[in-house]
Design brief:
The protein has 789 residues and is α+β, with helices and mostly antiparallel strands. The protein is built from 13 helices and 48 strands.
């Protein structure tokens, strides 16, 4: 028996590695795993090797391996399969500075025949082998991370069925990793790269995930039906392992987490960040995108008109980016030629955008081709194919036909994608690239280079893009498998596309598509926006897709407010996608209220209980002290009452709290359960709470949705209060104050003004903010000490 210890975990390893036991020093949780395994093919036949059946040839039990996170106290086993000539090495150990167990597998082909590697099996936790409580009882859930941007992500209970598309070959290649099993029964789930198995009664979870996906796409399979079980493996994709060659998995990490922690995923997210060298992430962009109003119906005049509006509105709506979306190219695949609406290309547009003081952005989909792309006819040998020689299916797309993809292991195809990126940046002049449909390079296929896994091919493609674009170009990935992109892309779409609709809409099939989990719709986007909020500024900047505020979409005002709330409170990119020339002032105001962007990473309180989280809490600090922004969502198709229990949301029941609901303007004095009456279907309540304290208090404003992020200074003296509101843009509105006595004098930026009495101790002060405004209140007598209830 080998014993390894850190300050967080203890690991007991049997010499022959038939099993191991991992113990948490803090929660008492533990797991016992059976032996790893390998699935491979030789001469067309599939074989399974269980490590426990092999002869141990060598054991190193006192290793200290350097990793990107910290030193790893580890042991290494070397096993030989005499019949095949395969040597399998396993390394297991504990990080000394972080509460993580790490494991990886390496395979060496020392035989005289090539083999195809299908699965590198790392963990097989049988029922009753995992204990997250003293008595191993509880209510379990499993958090599923989708393969790519649009893949449904969320948490499932044992009685739930995992969300799956019903459209088969039309959409499944887009959102489903072919190496991850499809599950259909209640309590049976699968996930990509990482997953979280939680005991809700004990508030404890097991987070298992790969630290990178440079070598393989990793899969997880959980079964909650007969006690929780979990399998984890790396997908070999039948990559060819020739005699003398070797391959190894990415590091798999396992750690126990507290579900009540403000950031329960943080240790894992940080370890991944270090492993993949994520650094220097840009600030979330604030800008405009052409897609969700014009879709493919764009031309230079439309873009010029909106650019003119952006310039006209600059003082009120300080957008920094203008991104041209689909509709300029000859076809999807033929990027270096233009359609009839852009006879002179897009270079002059990029110049105009930059001359207007904005970052110039453009949409490209470098790996996918629409079915009738001229590139298919010119270069059929560049195309990605299946093992039977037929063209690989990348899903349903332009022209309502199945799309195709480039084989990035073909040198000329890879060079073409590199030239497209170089041209867009160096010749056309764009410094922001939205790169879409990136999954197409990694669908179910057989590459021309048979030694490469799908993850390795996508990684090489993204490395090529980054090299061609340069370090000063902002890259946004969309429809992208997340793992291989880490450290290469600055921003990542984390959700399905939004749309001018709450549910998926595709007449005349809309009724049967209503439950499709990945099709464009606000409902589908919101699920991932909330479920993946923790990834922001850890792995990349989150892109929750665009905000539409116009009144002539098919979204109700409540649905527009819900979309804005989810985008705003999670703190990612904020791009409008409306016709700015036709946007009425009251809808433009909604956009203004969500600028500037706040820091991300709120707490999603019911993340581990539902695929559709409804409770979000974000703790921030303004110039007067701590305050909390809260969002409470109504996913129902009907209006309903929402009950807010302070203790359920983590508030001290012995403290009085005051605040204001943003959309309705209702003032809150909270000492017990709060009722938000008849919240509209698909609506929400967005409110800010502060601990009641002192004779004078800032309660928020109508200027910014956070009702606090705009408060930059607050100086309180016995006879005066001076504070500054800063938006970095022009806007009119009101700030709200709780005062135990009215001031004798009110000055706003040096000019006399007057408070408006609203209700007991609550006043409103109208403001015309020109970037910022300074407010001065003078009182006749010193303000009283203490609280007045």
């Amino acid at each position: 028996m080998i014993h390894l210890k850190s300050q967080f975990l203890a690991l007991e390893l049997e010499d022959h590695l038939a099993s191991f036991r991992l113990l948490s020093s803090s929660s008492g949780a533990s797991l016992r795993s059976v032996s790893p395994w390998l699935v491979y093919r030789r001469q067309g036949r599939q074989y399974l090797i269980k490590i426990s059946d092999l002869v141990l040839e060598e054991l190193h039990s006192s290793l200290f391996l350097p990793t990107s996170s910290s030193a790893l106290s580890a042991a290494r086993w070397c096993f030989r399969s005499p019949d095949t000539g395969l040597e399998i090495q396993l390394e297991l150990g504990l990080l000394q500075e972080h509460p993580l167990f790490l494991m990886r597998m390496q395979i060496l082909n020392q035989g005289d025949a090539s083999v195809e590697i299908e699965r590198l099996g790392l963990i097989d936790i049988a029922p009753q082998s995992l204990s997250l409580t003293q008595d191993n009882c509880g209510s379990y859930s499993f958090y599923v991370n989708g393969w790519q941007s649009w893949s449904p992500t969320g948490c499932y209970m044992a009685t739930d069925r995992q969300q799956r598309t019903r459209l088969g070959a039309l959409t499944q290649p887009m959102i489903h990793n072919p190496g991850t099993p499809l599950t259909y029964q209640a309590g049976h789930f699968s996930s990509d790269m990482f997953g979280i198995l939680s005991n809700l009664n004990a508030k404890t979870g097991l987070l298992a995930g790969f630290l990178s996906q440079r070598e393989h796409f990793g899969s997880l399979e959980a079964d909650l039906r007969a006690g929780p079980s979990l399998k984890i493996w790396a997908n070999g994709d039948r990559a060819l392992l020739a005699p003398g060659a070797n391959m190894h998995s990415d590091w798999l990490s396992i750690g126990f987490i507290s579900l009540d922690s403000p950031m329960p995923l943080q240790t894992y997210l940080t370890a991944v960040q270090r492993e993949t060298a994520v650094s220097n992430l840009p600030q979330p962009p604030v800008g405009w995108c052409s897609w969700y109003y014009y879709f493919r119906n764009i031309n230079p005049q439309i873009l010029a008109t909106n650019l003119k509006e952006i310039q006209r509105l600059r003082q009120a709506l300080p957008l920094q980016l203008m991104q041209i979306d689909d509709g300029f190219q000859a076809d999807v695949g033929t990027w270096l030629q233009f359609n009839k609406h852009f006879p002179n290309g897009v270079q002059s547009l990029a110049k105009q955008i930059k001359e207007a003081g904005l970052q110039a952005g453009i949409w490209l989909a470098p790996y996918i081709l629409q079915a009738d792309s001229s590139l298919i006819k010119k270069h059929p040998n560049w195309l990605l194919r299946r093992r039977d020689g037929r063209l690989a299916n990348t899903g349903f797309g332009w022209g309502n036909r199945l799309c195709r993809a480039l084989d990035l292991t073909h040198p000329e195809a890879l060079n073409y994608t590199r030239e497209v990126i170089r041209t867009a940046v160096e010749d056309w002049g764009f410094t922001y690239l939205k790169l879409d449909f990136l999954y197409a390079a990694a669908v179910d296929c057989a590459y021309q280079d048979p030694t490469k896994t799908r993850a390795q091919v996508l990684l090489a493609g993204l490395q090529s893009i980054r090299h061609a674009a340069g370090t000063n170009t902002t890259l946004l990935g969309c429809g992208c498998p997340i793992g291989p992109a880490l450290g290469l892309l600055d921003l990542m779409r984390i959700s399905a596309d939004v749309a001018p609709d709450w549910y998926p809409r595709f007449p005349p099939f809309s009724p049967i598509l209503r439950s499709e989990p990945n099709m464009p719709s606000v409902r589908n986007a919101l699920q991932n926006i909330l479920s993946r909020s923790d990834l922001d500024q850890n792995w990349f900047g989150n892109d929750p897709d665009c905000l539409m505020v116009r009144p002539d979409s098919r979204l109700t005002l409540a649905e527009v407010q819900t979309l804005a709330t989810a985008i705003g409170i999670t703190g990612g990119a904020m791009l409008l996608s409306d016709n700015l020339e036709k946007l009425p002032p009251q809808r433009l105001r909604i956009a203004q209220q969500f600028i500037p962007v706040i820091p991300g990473n709120p707490r999603v309180l019911d993340r581990f209980q539902s695929t559709q989280p409804a409770k979000v809490r974000h703790d921030l600090i303004d110039a007067q002290g701590p305050f909390t922004i809260l969002a409470f969502f109504n996913w129902s198709d009907l209006a309903k009452d929402l009950f807010f229990d302070p203790q359920e949301w983590g508030f001290d029941g012995h403290q009085n709290w005051v605040g204001r609901e943003f959309w309705t303007g209702e003032f809150l004095d909270l000492s017990e359960t709060l009722l938000f009456s008849q919240v509209p279907a698909h609506g929400c309540r967005l409110f800010t709470l502060r601990p009641l304290k002192g004779p004078a208090q800032y309660l928020g404003s109508s200027l910014h949705f956070s009702q606090g992020f705009e408060l930059k200074t607050w100086q309180q003296k016995p006879r005066s209060i001076c504070f500054t509101v800063d938006l970095n843009h022009q806007m009119s509105g009101e700030v709200f104050l709780r005062l135990e006595q009215a001031p004798r004098q009110v000055l706003v930026s040096g000019q006399p003004s007057q408070l408006q009495y609203l209700q007991k101790n609550i006043y409103a002060l109208p403001l015309e903010v020109k970037n910022s405004a300074e407010v001065y209140l003078h009182f006749n007598l010193p303000t009283k000490a203490g609280n007045k209830h």
